[in-house]
Amino acid sequence: MAKVSAMITRSRTRTSSKPQILQEDYVKGLRIDRIRQAQDEESWISGLKKYLVGELRDLDQGEAESYSLIATNYEMDLNDLLFYCPPTKRTDEDRDGLMRLVMPEALHQDILHHYHASLEGNHQGVGRTYQRIWDRFHWRGLYKSVQRYVGECVDCETGKGRPTISEESPGDIQATHPFQIIAMDHIPSLPRSHKGNTELLIWVDLFTGYVIAKASSSRTAQTIAESYEECVFRRFGASEMMRHDREPGFMSDFFRAFNKILGQRQRATMVYRPQANGSAERMVQTITRALKMYVQDRDQKDWDEYAERLTFAINTAQDRIRGDTPFYLVHGWDPRSTLEASIPVSSTKRRDRDPRRWRYQIQIHYQQARSQANQRLREVIADRADRHNDNVQPHQIQAGSQVWLYLDRVKEGYARKLAHLWHGPSRVVDKIGEHAVRLETGGTEYRLFPVVHVSKLKLVKEYPDRPRARITVNDSDRVDFDEILLPEDSGTPDLGQDQFEIEKITDMRSDKRTRYGRIYREFLAHWRGYEDPSWVDEADLNCGALLHEFS
């Protein structure tokens, strides 16, 4: 009879010495080993590495000829890792700066998750996610992989965007240097956090796109002024102009006097045209959507733990209009993420640099980047002022299509700004004219009229699978990175006095829904060796056999 191990807690006793798994060099070495082994398991990477080191006896003539065509764009470093460098006429020193680590298919999901779904990824779109990965890593079909991963991200599909509405372009105010003009807005009426915050103030530099966020407990004029002085003025000085909407806290005499002391002009939007503060309004949407992805508390009270930290991902992502990252346009250099700091993202062959020459090149590049951003902003603003977004394309929704349905109603007690408003997916039964469809609602939790307008729908993105080629490796020869990092007592530990095992489950109760529409469930667990049972959340149980037996 098999023993069922369930709901086991760890002993509270811990050694005082620093575990080996927490040592930076040890973890970095494991990651290098994992990448190298995964490269050796992928056929084309393994063959190319053999070609580069001269082991031609293991390759047939066709393989050798195909590798010879691309070998000039690849190198191996001292750790036997394969790097890619795009074709260029630059010197070897400049070429070394372009080297990108070749990631095998087995690790694609890890990289995509880090740069999209993690807190440093911020669930940003295809363009920004691709640019951040492309700067450091390489694999064939990289853009398609990013496009598919982002397109199939359920959090992004259900939490981002509204039905498309055609509107006029923003105004023509243009800044010529960092923090000359800043836009200001706020996200009001958020759930009261554990720290007592209910508001999120946001500032956006119109020249660089650099964003600053500050959580606060109120939106009075004094609170806004104090937050601005702490987050913006102390770091970047006073601006020439501040753009904002007609929020009472922004329009008060106190805030006007504060700006007058700093020599800043205020430019409020017109009542009939809030789009004039489009940069700040757009950033409110971006940060709100990002917060949806990371809020974990059932009552949404932990949002301020992530709000200010998420600005790092926004400020270090490539800006399509300006041609560089906001962080670089402000500071003149780009920071590294935690992943980039712990693995060799550039070749280890040529590391020597002349500091003076490096500083001179950085200054030249920074001046060029600012000049380029200024020119691009001027062209984009002129283009937007001359055209209207009235070119509506016909929709592609047909009978049988899988679609997301936009519902802007939120359950009482939940903040609409942090809720996922796209629901589904649902199947289209048939079309009713050109502007409405009938959805299949039977067997779902939704109680709504099945005929909806197409403006409330968007298609579920679908991508075909690509063929794969892997080298067969024995499981005993494969390094299990996660298993190595586990503590020694994580196998099948003996049950101590502070460790417990579930004997049986006898009852179940449900609570309110989560932000994804799922229902919280708790089970009545009877513990081995104890008389009194207790209610345990479904997420804390790892006894699948007992759950199956109970159901």
From TrEMBL:
* Domain Integrase catalytic, first and last residues per copy: 174-334
Gene3D superfamilies given for it?
1.10.340.70, 2.40.50.40, Ribonuclease H-like superfamily/Ribonuclease H (3.30.420.10)
- Source domain of life: Eukaryota
| CDD domains referenced in this protein's UniProt entry, alphabetically | CD_CSD
Q: What InterPro entries does this protein map onto?
A: Chromo-like_dom_sf, Chromo/chromo_shadow_dom, Integrase_cat-core, Integrase_H2C2, Retrovirus_Pol_polyprotein, RNaseH-like_sf, RNaseH_sf
Q: What is this protein called?
A: Reverse transcriptase
One Pfam family named in its UniProt record: Integrase_H2C2
Report domain Chromo positions. 500-551
MF terms (GO), sorted A to Z:
nucleic acid binding
Biological process per Gene Ontology, one example term: DNA integration
